[in-house]
Amino acid sequence: MPDLSGVCRMGACSTKGCRVSTPELIQRLRQRSSWRPILQSTFNIALFLLLAILTARSETPWLVRIVAWPLMGLVLAGFLNAAHDCAHSSFLDSKRLNYWAGVVWCVPLLISFGLFKSFHLTHHKFNRRRGDPEPLAPIGSISEYCGRVLSYNPFRNILVALRVARSSSRKLAGCNRVSRNELKIELLIILSWLALAVSLTVFFPTTILFAYWIPLLTFGPVVQATALPEHHGRPLSSDVFENTRTILSGPIVRAVLWNSGFHAEHHLFPFIPSCNLPILHKLLDVRRDRDALTTYSKFHLSLLSQLLSGSQAA
């Protein structure tokens, strides 16, 4: 349980008095109904399946497919954000169940949950400071922006997991918490899923290409596009309100992405389930208004405008 007086010192209090002032309140925010993750999971999976059926239908116009594929990438980004809750043990009530739920969410993305969890917890430990595995330097050119956001190899995660599983030193950034035995089990599951996907592609090439492989390719850029605004260009500071942004977005995007846009709130209290982050956001109303963005697109349009004009991104 964090020292709530520290929250006050960082500016989480309003001039009318601190609205996050008691351990009891934080404890209530740690609680969530057991049906919430089930309902959210059902929504995300059903939405992906509906879009997959739509894109795989032979009579579906190409324009509809072109619009649907990035939306499917957004839903897959929600899969990773569900795994993110599992990494913080806030998805389910059991640590072991959180682990296996994280594995299930990550397998269709060809990502090792153990590596993702280790990388992400390292990021939390060193957020915007030396040791943070996420890039600290701001993007300085359009080509660098395209390389950061658009380039994605879905098989790279498997190769990294294989390297870590075979390495005795495990010196890769963020891999200090990985259990090698669990990593090997995850790799076996991922490779089995990959073999199944390839086999289905052989028998149903167009259907699987449209319903899985192309959405998987859009997943990487969507994840980068939604993750970049969280910390890009923020000061190298230990103050969460200085080094992390909140992106409000719309209710549908928030639902699909498991409220990941409430990122400053999450870094302040990472153990609070994502479904309760909007409540925490309202309690931290003074500091949240200072640098909260309304949409992800607003951030990217502003960044691209700065890069095109030749000024360094802020």
Question: How would you explain this protein's 3D organization?
Answer:
By secondary structure, the protein is an all-alpha fold. The chain has one domain. Helix content is 64%, strand content 0%. The chain has 16 helices and no strands. The longest helix is centred in the last third of the chain and has 27 residues. The protein starts with a helix and ends in a 5-residue tail after the last helix. The N terminus is likely disordered.
CA(first)-CA(last) distance: 33 Å
Q: What best-fitting shape do the alpha-carbon axes yield?
A: globular
Total helix count? 16
**Count of domain modules:** 1
Total number of strands: 0
- Radius of gyration, in Å, reads 20 Å
Give the % helix.
55-70%
Report the sheet with the most strands, covering strand number, pairing sense and barrel closure.
Answer: none
Mean pLDDT metric? 88
Strand content: under 5%
Helix and strand sequence? HHHHHHHHHHHHHHHH
Task: List the topology elements.
Layout: H1 4-9, H2 23-30, H3 35-56, H4 62-87, H5 95-106, H6 113-125, H7 142-149, H8 156-166, H9 180-203, H10 205-231, H11 240-243, H12 251-256, H13 263-268, H14 277-283, H15 285-291, H16 296-309
Please provide a brief summary of the model.
With 314 residues, this protein is mostly helical.
Provide key terms for this protein.
314 residues, mainly alpha, 16 helices, 64% helix, disordered N terminus
